[in-house]
Design brief:
about 65% helix; mainly alpha; elongated
C-alpha cells in the first residue's frame, strides 16, 4: 500500500514538472522573434547615479543621494568618518573608536549629535528646495 502511494506521488510530481516546463516554453520568446521596438525597450540603459566619494581612514565610501552627500560635506572629517562608518559600513561604535583612536563613548555621543546636526541641515535644505 505504501509502495503504491509513493509511486502515485512521484507520478503526480512528474506530471507537475512536465506542465511547468510546458508553461515556461509557452511564455518564452526567442530573441529572433522579438520586434526591434521590443528589443530597444529591453536594452535601455538604467539611470546611472554618480556617487559622491568620501575617504575615511583609507577606505572609500560612496553616497548616492546628493542631499545627504551635501549634508555630510558640512561635517568635519572625524564627523564624516563616524557617520559613514556607522551607517554605511555597519561598524559598531567600538570598532569605530578603535579605528579613530578615540573613546567609544565619544563616538556614541558625537554620532547622536551629528545626526541632530544633519537632520537640521536637511530640513532646512528641503524647506528651500525646488520641488
Amino acid at each position: 500500500m505504501f509502495y503504491g502511494f509513493c509511486r502515485t506521488t512521484l507520478r503526480h510530481a512528474q506530471i507537475d514538472l512536465i506542465r511547468e516546463q510546458a508553461d515556461r516554453l509557452a511564455k518564452e520568446e526567442t530573441m529572433s522573434d522579438l520586434t526591434e521596438t521590443t528589443i530597444d525597450q529591453l536594452c535601455t540603459a538604467p539611470d546611472i547615479h554618480t556617487d559622491t566619494l568620501f575617504s575615511v581612514n583609507g577606505k572609500v565610501i560612496g553616497v548616492t543621494d546628493s542631499l545627504i552627500a551635501q549634508a555630510l560635506m558640512t561635517l568635519d572629517e572625524q564627523g564624516q568618518a563616524i557617520v559613514l562608518l556607522y551607517y554605511l559600513a555597519d561598524w559598531s561604535d567600538a570598532r569605530i573608536a578603535l579605528e579613530l583612536k578615540i573613546p567609544r563613548s565619544t563616538v556614541q555621543f558625537r554620532r547622536k549629535h551629528l545626526l541632530t546636526t544633519l537632520k537640521a541641515y536637511m530640513i532646512e535644505r528641503y524647506r528651500y528646495a525646488d520641488i
